[in-house]
Write a structure and sequence with these properties.
Chain lengths: ~475, ~450
Amino acid sequence: MLRTFLLVSSVSLGALLAQPPQAQQATDFKGVVRKNLVPVSNEVLRVKFPKPVESKLKNGMTLLVLEDHRSPTFQVSIRMPASSLNDPAELEGIGSATSALLRLGTKTRTSLQIADTLQELGASLNASIGERYAAISFSALSENLDPLLALVEDVMFNPSFPQDELDKWKNRQISQLQQSRAQPGFLGQERLFAVLYPGDVRSRIAPTPESIGKITRDLVVDYYNRNFRPAGGIVAVSGDVSPKEIAAKLDKVLGEWKGSAPKPPELPIPGPIAEKKIFLIDRPNSVQTTLYISNLAFDRSSPDYIPAEVANQILGSGPASRLFRNIREDKGYTYGIGSFFSASHYTNIFVVSTSVRTEVTGPALEEIFKELVNIREQVVPADELEGARRALVASFALSTENAAAGLSNALTIKDYGFPADYWDTYPEKISKVTAEDVQRIAKKYIPVDNAQIVAVGDASKLRTVLAKFGPVEEYDSDGHKK
Amino acid sequence: MILFNSRLSLTLLAGLATLAFAQSSNAPAKAKPIAPIKFSDTRLDNGLRVILVEDHYAPVYSIAVSYAVGSKDERPGRTGFAHLFEHMMFKGSENVGAGEHFFLIFNYGGNMNGTTNTDRTVYYEELPKNQLDMGLFLESDRMRSLAITKENLENQRQAVKEERRLGLDNQPYGYSNDRLNELTYDNFAYHHSVIGSMQDLDAASVEDVQAFFRTYYAPNNAALAIVGDIDSKETLAKVQKYFGSIPRQEAPKPVDLTEPPMTGERREAMEDKLARLAQVSINYRIPSAASADGPALSALSSILGGGETSRLYQKLVKEKEVCSGINAFSSERLGPGAIRITCTVRQGKTLQEAEGLISEEISRIIAAPVTDQELARVKASARRSAVAVRTSSLSRAISLANDASVYNDPNRLNTEPEKLMAVSAADVQRVARTYLRSENRVLLETTPAAKPAASPKPQVP
């Protein structure tokens, strides 16, 4: 599913951004009337995140602990290198099946006993597998750390993967897939990823009834044993715990447990698709058109990441951005609109996303494209640039309320091999982004002539309108080409 | 809601005091006592209630202003108006330009939103602590001097209609919730939806906005809560400076929320053009969340349908595989509420099977008391939710302002969890007997209108 990139960053900010306000020029902030009478502080707060304590567990895993004693709860995530991108197409969903089944039975506990115990401990427990990690995550009231660890140990090392639980899980999945097909967002994203990464594992966002049908208990057992392995992994802990105590307790649970999973695959980071195209998904009786305007951009390691954050802040991040002010506040075509870059090891996309009433689909697309052209062709005014840079850095103060943000920053550094001071220098990097940088990024990544447009709505009312924007390819709501 | 991506859910179970915790066989440790959330509670001369909490953990503060006005205060022909009005609160006031409110908040690193329900309308901002004056100025200026123009009303009418389409007209089961509430409540106050009808939204005029503002957006009809890295004394002085001179208005007449008792079960069936699976939704009428039965009803709905361990989930989803999902919850309302049960029926199963099994579980929970274990589990979950509120200044600010304006009791944040901890199995059985009667039940069946285009994919057994 689409991930917006979240800004959670540690900052030790100098006076860098506390520059005197720029001379006011007559920038047209469409959709907003600025009276400039509200008292504001131009100081950008210097905020600091606590850094987690790092150590090694006996089995070689890295332990990161961030203490936070404000509330008597804790969270633990055991992250093991593995990748769902290794899963074969015909077995799509096996990672979800394995993750779900893990908490549905052990040699001595039924699924109901596990669920009852979790609730009695005020706890939650989940397993998952994604692009780079398999994870077992759990949390509880801190007074229940010991009984929860006992349960986690049983789940991890004595899972029974009951056949009847698997059969029932498959039935539920198939019903849930049917429900997803009633959602315009699902239909749009299914097509979007198929368009952006054709013939590639990244093109699939959900299993099919056929792939779910092929999942057997033997395959699940094998999948768990191969992919949930500790070598090179990280255990991340935050909350009402002491680093020493939790290390000893985790050592007791994990012991000498060893082994590694198959390596995550090497996948290309493809460049933008060259030809403009429109993909219309017919959802009869829709009263809105759900739109995605997209193309491929850059992955998380790119030096373009930071200037692109500033460019996107101006274009489509939040209600102060151009897209929101124009399409919603000025035109009233939509309830919400936004754009984002999604950049990880494997995803490299730019997307504008909105839903508009069917009748204004054409005018809305015209206005969106006006904004995309504008940020590519016009130099961004100084005061607008300043506002965007300040917004990005000033919002760090808000994320310091959540201790887990510091932990998440530390994990990003480890995940991408960034230098240890990555977040310390981040505000400075944002503050140095220039108007020329923004324009360069926009020209490079914000699609106009090569836009990939996905539209979900009532095709009978949209065909002619959309044809004005480029060649249209039509699909039904089961995902089949018409 | 003024914006789409609200960062938090508003169904917060807030803070709590020292709790006795039932020990169960699975040996959870003895619950640590938790200090209550302390706040100051002041009334300005103009009637504005001001609640302050100091928390210096992070350089952040949150402000929430809750006005005691919601869709219950609307009149026939103007459904959806309280929410449309919420949107107008961002279109400028004497010293703030249209849209400048969120332009400033987001450009200075903050976060904000507004949200309307049946009982109240709440506005909130979360900001770095050096922007205290900004937040207070923005909230006070619009309370004092909302600028209302025809052009701005027209523009927000469109945004609200899109909000309705997004959340309702273009969604599977979009109309089911509204229809179920129409069937449940006879009194207009809760009979109609918060979002309103397209026709009524079209009918709203500038004069309506002006009259609504005068009547309901007065300091004496509002509660203001500020939580975070503030100095209480200095902050109260600033609140006095910004809000103190806003004139008090005549208090609005309280709306009669009472419902004539139901005399028999109400049932209806409807078709849905966007759904792919059938759904049954059931309301049992219950009294106000502030009633003495509130905590026992909350425990009852959790044991029935709150998550994986609940009776309905175990029976209908796991054992019989009739539903792909099921849940039950009790509403938080000033006036009469409901225990709502919703089940989406798997393909190949029938609404009748689902309804029959739900009825069996209802009969069972009436016939015999719930177990101590079931009750202990509900209390542990509630305790977990209650402590979570402490790490967010915004959650606390919204809860305090909400509870002060709707229930005239900001301390519910501390006392409600305590009351839940005191609920007994006998209490649960008593409220089950009282409210889960068939003549108190409203049932709505929703079925897909027509089969979507035939799928060539085979069904997997």
